[in-house]
Amino acid sequence: MAEKDTRLLMLVDDEPAQCRLVSAIASRAGWRTIFARDAETAIAMLGTQDGMMLDAIILDEWAPGSDSAALIAELKARRPALPVLLLTAIGSTDSAIEAMRAGASDYLIKPVAAERLIAALSMAAEHSKDFGELQPLTEKITHPLGFDEIIATAPAYRSALAIAAKAARSRAPVFIEGEGGVGKEVVADAVHGASPRARLPLLKVNCGAIAPNLLDSVLFGHEKNAFTGAFDRRVGLVQQADGGTIFLDEIDQLPTETQVRLVRLLTENEIQPLGSPHSYRVDVRVISACNNDIAELLASGAFREDLYYRINIVQLRIPPLRERTADIPALARHFLARMATQPGLRSLGITDEALSLLKTYDWPGNVRQLQSALFRAAVLCDRDALTADEFPQIAAAVGRQLTTPIQMSEGIGVALYEQDGNLRPLEEIEADVIRLAIGHYRGRMTEVARRLGIGRSTLYRKLADLGIESNAA
To answer: Tens of pLDDT along 234-247?
Structure first.
């Protein structure tokens, strides 16, 4: 696909003079600007044809209709890979920090200098994917996880991952069911990564985030003048993924016409772009996912049975987080380690009291909600570790008072932090580790010493120094 000559910018601002200035500067660098006066208009425009082709958004701090950080968070939730830049006044450092924490790529001080604006737009363009309408479902902080790296102890989840790992080596379509936020994309990444196609593209599209009248063009492409507004020929995502994998999230949102085209792809390995007299053969593996019970859609005729049977060759169900609360401590520490790599954040621990609180909540938004809660807590925390005090909304939801001690849940491990978030003394932690090892290995001191990486004589000396009985459990 040829690179676009002109990039598309959305400016969210209701000041005519500033709109004229920004659009004039942007045009010098080859950007065309569309305008949204307020937050509601900006969100609505994401679903239009121009909105699907955006390369960047500039948001004025005082745009009507929304707090700027809230609007940025909403825009990033809908289009995670789309760069958002904030226009802010001199001295509004707090607003800039909040915007960056909400997902803004950069911020510009008003009145904006031409060279600064052009540089910021160029940087945004370099970091955006040049797939036209394609916008990845989520931005990755680290590389996708392999099957052996996914945190999963629940038998149902382990079973699903075992099936997925076996299926990964084949070309068979995979259908992933589960509530929103359970990690269906993580599994899709693992399937692709373990397949012979791992070195080829994995393209992702959220079918529910694209206007239905644009989905055919997004997936299968179109010829020039195929419909009103089709000024250029566009290669669809399926053809871009040739040799690799395409992940269709919220596949139940596909309109009937697009379902018919997908059936042809799965049965004949062929696609026909809109307005094209020719078909093209492609070799692409389809992984699809759905949040809803698709049986109801099948019964009502909203989802084609022939398509369902073709995407459902390998079926996986990912359990919700409330059914695998034992994974919460490991997930929390994993997310905190990832967050520590982000600008403006630092390495944080989490107390056993806080983990116990998180395990008590039922997490209707699943893993995605847990990650969001941890991120919010990490941004606001001024201690070395997150405590239950950082999760007042969670505490209120489970009906606990923060002043009431929460008992340590079984299996969380040795406590590293006091309830006030400060680290415990090293001597106390070491004593707890030794007691834990003695209990775990049932008093077999040779094995305890070997697992702790010390000699038996050193172990007995530590027992004496720390006042630990050798039969401690």
So the answer is: 888 999 999 999 99
